[in-house]
Write a structure and sequence with these properties.
This protein is of the alpha/beta class and 862 residues long. Bound molecules: adenosine-5'-diphosphate and magnesium ion (MG).
């Protein structure tokens, strides 16, 4: 093997310790990457790949990014789930003997980023650790930017862990290297989180006190795994880390990952955007902290009615006094992100502007207290009492940090005059010196009579007197010493000027140094207040989320729900998101009623009539109620649900590649095995992903099972008209349908929910809407009539034993008035053949439309 240069040997040695990260190796003003790192980074970052030692037989692939713009490149890699190890020169190259010593000073990973520009301010950024015990798993997650730690035990198997990980904004999971391969693979492939390893689960570090509230050995192990990893990668102060809050999962409404996704709680299903999600509608918070808390609440709705009522009371109070609420909102807007500011104080990466923001935010706290006291609601008055801030910290910041400081903390101008005597002396010296120079300029102008004479400064020559060439003849010989010649001017100095310069520069250098020291001292003193800042952040967020609920409730006409043990009744319920994207008033509200005698609603109705919308609006209303928000309807008496399950049939599940029947059945199974009589199940056209009879048989069996064994409240929409007969045999099932009307041969959707089954499915009308030629439609009608006849016969033979006999397949209605036969050209025969082969039940309405359009085009050619 060719021998490497000492520097490359150093590189290889360090790289060997950071195999799973891009190693950013500092060389002068650049971070360089080598070998495979370089090849991959060049591709991911779209930068040029070059070679080192290109003259040699085996040049080394290399690429680099400038040190000052590295952040942007690091962000790209982190966003893609990679890790970046920052390797710096840790001794001065000027004094180093041999190769400059280098060390990895920080490992930046998706779960540990702290830099402002890499974080979404409205979202937490979690790193989790997962530990496996005999019959349980423990998950700890930590947001390094806020110092928040949560810990939860999962006693019901791996599946629930996956659901939890999916539902939280977790970017990275730290596991034991012993975690079974199969599970590791699932984490990587299904959840697309970055995996990291830490096997050391004893924790004796500096932050031992963080574990004091954990008495269960499993929790200690799990938390230690995470803390060890964080310490190992971050190598800096973690003073803002809080003790882990133990999350009792049984105290929260559990939403499986399918529900969170299908209900579009925090992002939309396909585009993964906030716009169009429930969060988008509900988020009327005005602080980043509030936005994060709201998202957390949506991910974990409550189960305890007392807690819900507590929130609702506050919302009610804010709702009633809208003028005071408006002022409160305005005031909250000037509170910066206290939580993340506290994190950066601990981490040591705050600047003077951050502390300025901190000061302004803290100064708002007493104002907020006064505002809250103006609300009549008792609960709000109590909240007001929490808005207390230690005067020392505000006084300290007020006295010390300059009003408009620069970004850098190493160039001075960050500390106020009068804060430190020594600093004032230096500043006086420098100011006096400058004053003296200004006076000198005036004096010299007068004495030499050169109006354009001026005194300037540059870094290389210091202070100088400048005289233009045109005026040089006015200058008495020997008055100044010549220093520098420019094209149009000469620059001079005098011994006195140099002397003053010396004093000024010395004073400035010393004062900049002192300012930096003072700043670090101030920062360290603020560190002691981190718990207080974190508590205040929590109070501000809480008020912010609830004023947001009041604001959205007023804007969108929501009402305060009540909770009942048995009977759910939502009068004139609306879909909170769809009503927002439709024209005002065009959303059609509908009642929803469920109780123990009526716990399954079987919903039929034509495609596009509003079945899915109706089901979802129930789930969304339930969730809104259980996070303590008002709900979209005229009045609501809700039940407290322990879990929500949803399954959307294959035909509606637009996420490519996931619409297999198997997935559908897995999800149905997940619901059926976990639901209780206090759960809510939404099955939207389940059984669509397979052939008609299979699907129908399974759908029926599922309904019967829920009805007889689980008693969960269930909304089941179906295009299998035959299932509506179940009402005769299942006493707690009711048929409802979405009304549509035929108007001049076209279907008109009324979006109104009515009792009883739908009478027909209007499939043929959708075809008419597509403007197919009459001949084709009537031919299609005939073919389908034949098909139905045939299927009818098969069906009688195959499933007579299990399904009650029904008139016909529901999707198409025979239209016997159309008698005209199509011509029998060859092309038409092909069209008909293709039409016959269409799997209508396996298609989305849009696909069906496209397919019809294509067939029509073909048919018109005949
Ligand atoms: P289905 O599930 O029956 O095929 P959807 O629930 O997907 O129908 O609704 C189709 C479209 O109809 C929705 O995207 C919406 O635009 C509209 N819609 C549904 N329900 C209503 C309603 N209650 N009021 C007004 N428009 C509605
Ligand atoms: Mg639907």
């Amino acid at each position: 093997m060719a021998k490497h240069t000492p520097m490359m040997e150093q590189y290889l040695r360090i790289k060997a310790e950071h195999k799973d990260a891009f190693l950013f190796f500092r060389l002068g003003d650049f971070y360089e990457l080598f070998y495979d790192d370089a090849i991959q980074a060049a591709r991911e970052l779209e930068i040029t790949l070059t070679k080192r030692d290109s003259g040699k037989a085996k040049p080394i692939p290399m690429c680099g990014v400038p040190y000052h713009s590295a952040d942007n490149y690091i962000k790209i890699l982190i966003d893609k789930g990679y890790k970046v190890a920052i390797c710096e020169q840790v001794e001065d190259p000027k004094t180093a003997k041999g190769v400059v010593k280098r060390e990895v000073i920080q490992l930046i990973t998706p779960g540990t980023v702290m830099e402002k520009n890499m974080l979404n301010e409205k979202e937490n950024n979690y790193i989790a650790s997962l530990s496996h015990f005999d019959s349980s798993y423990v998950l700890v997650y930590s947001d390094l930017s806020t110092g928040e730690n949560q810990i939860a035990v999962f006693e019901h198997g791996w599946d629930s862990v996956i659901h939890e990980l999916y539902n939280q904004p977790i970017k990275e999971v730290v596991v034991s290297s012993q975690l079974p391969e199969e599970l590791q693979k699932q984490l990587k492939m299904r959840l697309q989180v970055t995996l990291s390893y830490q096997d050391e689960v004893n924790f004796n570090g500096e932050y031992r006190h963080l574990c004091e509230n954990l008495h269960d050995e499993r929790l200690l192990t799990a938390f230690s795994r995470l803390l060890n990893y964080i310490q190992h990668t971050q190598k800096r102060s973690l003073d803002h880390m809080q003790q882990a809050k133990i999350i009792e999962l049984k105290n929260y409404l559990s939403l499986d990952m399918f529900s969170k996704r299908n209900l579009e709680l925090t992002e939309t299903l396909i585009k993964k955007e906030r716009y169009g999600s429930l969060l988008w509608v509900l988020d009327k918070t005005v602080t980043a902290m509030g936005a994060r808390m709201l998202k957390k609440w949506l991910e974990r709705p409550l189960l305890n009615p007392t807690q819900m009522e507590e929130r609702l009371e506050v919302v009610d109070g804010f709702y009633r006094q809208f003028m005071e609420r408006d002022v409160l909102r305005e005031t909250l807007k000037s509170v910066y992100d206290l939580e993340r500011l506290a994190g950066r104080v601990a981490f040591g990466n705050v600047n003077a502007r951050d502390l300025q923001q901190l000061k302004k935010s803290l100064q708002k706290i007493p104002e907020i207290r006064v505002l809250l006291q103006q609300f009549a609601q008792k609960e709000i008055q109590q909240l007001a009492d929490q808005f207390q801030v230690s005067p020392e910290i505000v006084d300290l910041l007020e006295a010390s940090i300059a009003d408009d400081p620069p970004l850098s903390i190493k160039e001075g101008d960050i500390i106020k005059d009068g804060y430190n005597e020594q600093l004032d002396t230096y500043r006086d010296a420098s100011r006096n010196g400058k004053q003296w120079i200004a006076e000198l300029e005036q004096k010299e102008k007068q004495e030499t009579n050169i109006k354009s004479l001026k005194i300037g400064y540059n870094r290389v020559f210091g202070y100088y007197i400048e005289v233009t060439k045109a005026n040089l003849h006015l200058l008495p010989e020997g008055r100044y010493e010549r220093k520098q010649t420019l094209t149009n001017a000469e620059r001079f100095v005098t011994p006195e000027l140099k002397e003053k310069e010396q004093l000024i520069l010395e004073a400035e250098e010393k004062s900049v140094e002192l300012e930096y020291q003072l700043f670090i001292e101030i920062r360290d003193r603020i560190k002691e207040y981190i718990p207080e800042l974190q508590r205040l952040a929590e109070e501000v967020s809480y008020v912010d989320v609830l004023q947001g609920f009041a604001t959205v409730s007023e804007a969108n006409n929501y009402v305060r729900p009540t909770f009942d043990e048995e009977h759910l009744f939502i009068k004139q319920s609306r879909h909170p998101v769809i009503e927002q994207v439709m024209d005002d008033g065009s959303f059609v509200p509908n009642d929803i009623e469920l109780d123990h005698n009526k716990h399954i609603l079987l919903i039929t109705g034509p495609n596009m009539s509003g079945k899915s919308t109706y089901m979802r609006q129930l789930a969304l209303t339930v969730i809104m109620g259980q996070i303590g928000c008002f709900v979209p309807c005229e009045s609501a008496q809700l039940l407290v649900f322990d879990q929500i399950f949803t399954r959307i049939g294959a035909a509606d599940d637009l996420v490519a590649g996931q619409s297999t029947f198997m997935v559908e059945m897995l999800e149905a199974n997940h619901a059926i095995t976990n639901a209780t009589d206090r759960s809510l199940i939404l099955f939207d056209e389940i059984g669509r992903g397979t052939s008609t009879y299979d699907g129908m048989a399974l759908a029926q069996a599922i309904i019967e099972y829920i009805h007889n064994h689980i008693h969960a409240k269930t909304l089941f929409s179906t295009h299998y008209h035959e299932l509506t007969d179940l009402e005769k045999t299942l006493p707690n099932l009711r048929n409802i349908h979405v009304r549509a009307e035929e108007h001049e041969g076209n279907v008109v959707f009324l979006h109104q929910i009515k009792e009883g089954p739908a009478d027909q499915s209007y499939g043929i009308h959708v075809a008419k809407l597509a403007d197919l030629p009459q001949t084709l439609i009537s031919r299609a009608g005939k073919i389908l009539a034949e098909l139905e006849g045939k299927e009818q016969k098969n069906k009688q033979q195959e499933v007579a034993a299990t399904t009650e006999q029904t008139a016909q397949l529901s999707f198409f209605v025979e239209d016997s008035k159309e008698k005209k036969e199509p011509s029998t050209s060859k092309l038409e025969a092909i069209v008909v053949k293709e039409l016959k082969e269409l799997d209508l039940f396996g298609m989305t309405p849009i696909d069906a439309m496209n397919e019809l359009y294509r067939l029509q085009k073909k048919a018109r050619k005949s």
